[in-house]
Amino acid sequence: MIDATTAFPPARGSSGERLATAAVWSSALLVVGVSVWMLGGLFWQGAGRINWAFLTTEPANAGRSGGIAPMLASTVLVLGVALAVSVPLGLGAAVLLAEFTDSGSVFGRLVRRSLDVLAGVPSVVFALFGNALFCQYLGLGYSILAGGLTLACMVLPVLIRATEEGFRAVPEDYRRAAAALGMSRTGTLWHVLLPAAAPGLAVGLVLGIGRVLGETAALLFTSGYVDRMPESLLDSGRTLSVHIYDLSMNVTGGDANACATAVVLVVLLLVVNAAAGWIARHWMRGKRISE
Amino acid sequence: MSPSAKDRLLLGVLRGCAALAGLLVVVIAAFLILESVPAFRNVGWTRFFSDPAWHPAPRAEAGQFQMLPMLAGTLAVMAGAVLLATPLGVLSAVFCRYYAPPALGNAYRRLIELLSGIPSVVYGFWGLVTLVPLINQVRPPGASLLAGVLVVAIMILPTVALMADGALAQVPQEYLRAAAALGLSRWTTVRAVVLPAAKYGLFTGVMLETGRAIGETMATLMVCGNIVRFPQSVFDPVRTLTANIALEMAYALGDHRSALFASGLLLLVLIVMLAGAAEWIGGEPARD
Amino acid sequence: MRKAGTLWWLGVFGALFSAGCGSNAKPEAQALTTPVAPVAQLEGKLEVTGSSTVAPVVLEAAKRFEKLHPAVRINVQTGGSSRGVADPQKGIADIGMASRALKEDEAKTVVAHLIALDGICVILHKTNRVENLSDEQVMGIYLGKWTNWKDVGGRDAPITVVNKAEGRSTLELFAHYFKLKTAEIKASVIIGDNEQGIKTVAGNPDAIGYVSIGSAEYAAAQGTNIKLLPMNGIAASVENVRNKTFPLSRPLNLVTLPDPNGLKKAFIDYVQSEQVEDLVKELSFVPVR
User: Fold this and answer.
1) Which conformational region is residue A232 in: left (phi greater than 0), alpha (psi within -120 to 50 degrees), or beta?
2) In a shared domain, residues C141 and C191
3) Among B47, B154, B192, C224, fewest CB within 10 Å belongs to which?
4) C196-216, pLDDT tens digit by residue?
5) Could you tell me the pLDDT band of residue B76, with boundaries at 50, 70 and 90?
6) Distance, in angstroms, between A133 CA and closest chain B CA?
């Protein structure tokens, strides 16, 4: 790749050129400035309150003081339910789309198109759907189970897309070699393709986790507000993001703990995203070696 | 090679998974329709556009169900945010690829990736405690269309910037070499060569950010003031369709609840239309 | 294909249900260590929904009740008085919460259990110069007749009118008292729960809002930047709600289907008993006993 920054002649004195350079640099500066303003402020106010006790105690005085242990637990449980349901389903769908369907087939195109639409459906629409189907028709009420199932529907498109890409990245030689050895398609899938495509699944998983951790609207009306330590999946549970919403909107004097909770959430997401980046990069390197 | 029974079973299971995943959006649409039937029957769809105001009640006769101001709110927030975020996002990507020294460009890309992972409730929280009081000093009440536009613009900026960055990366290197050989300046190359070559990718990015702007719930709920009225200026509070659902769903009953499902259906229709438009113009379904 | 899908969902639910129920068994072990052994061991789960005004009392009472009866779980969700009345009717909740009396048609299907009294008062930011507003002035502000504080004796600044969302009993009672039609109120901000209203007013020097006296007094005692305006010359205080001189007061109720029994009855009795009177007082409501 040529180095784009040095391949051009140095900017000549034309005013249009200088204007453009100024515009490009100032937009970048603006974005950096706003990010620092936002994230900096958040960490400045919130980071100081975070300690071991904050992470391990129950909230007190409507969340103004005390910790976030029940929210952490609820978040993990919602995440667990969402992944337990969406991963097998998404994996199956991705395998079918990548390995057993011609890219031009009607079925494949229909499924892909509907997944594209699904990926764009607003989270509050998922909230309506989840509330109607899981909470009312299936009688789960406001529960971690209902919230997790709603989010499972939500993360499905992301999960399928990334996993499908993972399968597509497996070199064609693998399939031919497996066929030449007389392996069944099931065997090929289990022993050859799945291990080779695992990084794609991992990326999808991590992206899905990111969406679940950050989701608020879909959970307000499916898993509810209760800030007690959950004891079963049928209990209502308040996730970290719902806690931030509640503290900032409904609790006078809740801003400081909302900030601290936001920092915890952002740090969690940073770790998750860094994991995604790391997997993606190692996957690329692995691929290059195998070629 | 004839497929064994195991292979056929596997294929059946996989087909089931894919069909279920594909049908999900149909199931969601079906549920929204099912739940909004009472509203369509008792209120009638014309009243959503002809009633004097939005004062919902559990019984259709007792309430008023005008949705247009909220649709206007949704579209105004969307339009403002997209108009702000698109140039900034595209210029950000141009900065990354063609202006910044490589190390700085990479660091900048990391920052954008970081921003893309931050949940909307955090953006909303920041808007609520920082932006709204600032706007309030200029023109009360602070919670306004402007606050919504700014917060949503910041939120969707990473989407368009990352998509644009990906699209610029796809521009063939020969184009750049040819431009350099012709002695074209940096900005001329970007404007006349790179951006036209990447236009489909840029377009997809705009479509995706538009979808996110329409669907954004928490941030608009927290900073827009939630008054159901056509905004007369950017300092006026507005209520978006999404915020309306989030605000009223907790206590809505009967026809009111059903009307909220109808507004959810309206949102779904907007998104499907957007996906359709993207496919029709871009020639390819929008991708994440 | 759809049938296969349904079966699949059922399978998932089955698996998750059994997982959920499995972990329910835990509290029994803890029961052995409880110092207070109730006559009949209460166990089970109650769903309580409704008014955000009543919720803090019930929430705190529920915590105590759970300590007393370790095998009992009480989930409290807010959503407004209309839901507090409708949810028990529909069977979505076991007990509803309503910060108003039952309407005539509602009283046919559900019964109310009085737990406390409360009032509704107008609140302003602490720094607002205005100390008193007549009923006409409040009416005028909410109808958009006066839009600047200097019209009613304050500084020269536009008034930010904070109104409650439809379906909230606080809005209904407030509108009824001031003879306002909810459709005619010219609001600048719409809020849901009491706390949100207090927070909005505390964060805006030129805002006017109205909330439950209990919530407002509690927040003011916690150091929040709001002040409670007298109504009709009578100070907005718990004392004046107690002696029935405050003009805009209301009952706080628990709502159930007729003849509640078992756990429901036990919990309602508990919330009405003197065992939670200190809680009711601490939250600035008036106990009924």
Assistant:
1) beta
2) yes
3) B192
4) 888 889 888 899 999 989 888
5) very high
6) 8
Task: Judge: C8–B20 Cβ closer than 8 Å, yes or no.
Answer: yes
Please report where in the chains the tokens 């002040």 appear, as a residue.
Answer: C227
Residues of B with Cβ-Cβ distance to C192 under 8 angstroms? 247, 250
Q: Taking residues A88-115, what's their average pLDDT? A: 88
Which of C82, C97, C155, C201 best tests the B interface by mutation, with the highest count of B CBs <10 A? C82
B61: closest CA of chain C, how far (Å):
15
Alpha-carbon span B15 to B28, nearest angstrom: 20
For B180, the closest chain A residue by CA position comes to A8
Chain A residue with the nearest C-alpha to that of C192: A250
Q: What is the mean pLDDT of residues A78-93?
A: 94
Give me the CATH number covering residue C83. 3.40.190.10
pLDDT tens for residues A4-19?
545 565 555 678 888 9
Pull the structure tokens for residue A137.
């028709």
Please give the Cα distance from A236 to A77 (Å, whole number): 11
Report pLDDT digits (tens) over C124-179. Answer: 999 999 999 999 999 999 999 999 999 998 899 889 999 988 777 889 899 999 99
Q: Please tell me the distance from the alpha carbon of residue A40 to that of residue B114, in angstroms, as a whole number.
A: 13
3-state secondary structure (DSSP) of residue C161: strand
Say what the pLDDT of residue A136 is. 85
Interchain CB distance below 8 Å, A11 and B185: yes
Judge if C61 and C99 occupy the same domain. Answer: yes
**Burial grade of B285 (CB within 10 A; 0-12, 13-18, 19 or more):** middle
Nearest beta carbon to residue A249 from set C26, C75, C196: C196
Contact A92, B18 (CB under 8 A): yes
| Residue A96 near residue B14, CB atoms below 8 Å | yes
Phi and psi torsions of A13, nearest 5°? -70, 0
pLDDT tens digits for range C9-34: 444 444 444 433 333 333 333 334 44
pLDDT confidence of residue C38:
47
Q: Please tell me the pTM assigned to this model.
A: 0.86
Smallest Cα distance from C103 to chain B, Å: 15
Is C73–A235 a contact, with Cβ atoms under 8 angstroms apart? yes
Mutate to test the interface with A, among B96, B186, B221, B249 (most CBs of A within 10 A): B186
Confidence tier at B127 by pLDDT (50, 70, 90): very high
Contacts of the segment C215-224: beta carbons below 8 A, 24+ positions apart: C215/C53, C215/C56, C215/C284, C216/C121, C216/C123, C216/C284, C217/C284, C218/C282, C218/C283, C218/C284, C219/A252, C219/C195, C221/C284, C222/A252, C222/A253, C223/A253, C224/A252, C224/A253, C224/C198
Domain assignment of residue C133, yes or no: yes
Can you give the pLDDT at residue B2? 52
Buried b (16+ CB within 10 A) or exposed e, C34-49: eeeeeeeebeebbbbb
* CA–CA min distance A135, chain C (Å): 9
Chain centroid offset of residue C243 CA: 22
Dist CA B89 CA B86 (whole Å): 5
What are C46's strand-pairing partners? Answer: C74
A204: CATH: 1.10.3720.10
User: Cα separation of C101 and C249, whole Å?
Assistant: 11
A250 Cβ neighbours under 8 A, 6+ residues apart: C192, C193, C195, C196, C199
Domains of chain B from N-terminus onward: 76-247 (1.10.3720.10)
pLDDT in tens, C27-60: 333 334 444 444 567 888 888 998 888 988 898 8
Three-class SS string for C166-186? Answer: CCCHHHHHHHHHCCCCHHHCC
Tokens representing residue B272 in the block: 């499907």
Q: Is C205 in the same domain as C181?
A: yes
Chain B residues in contact with A216 (beta carbon < 8 A): 119-121, 217-218
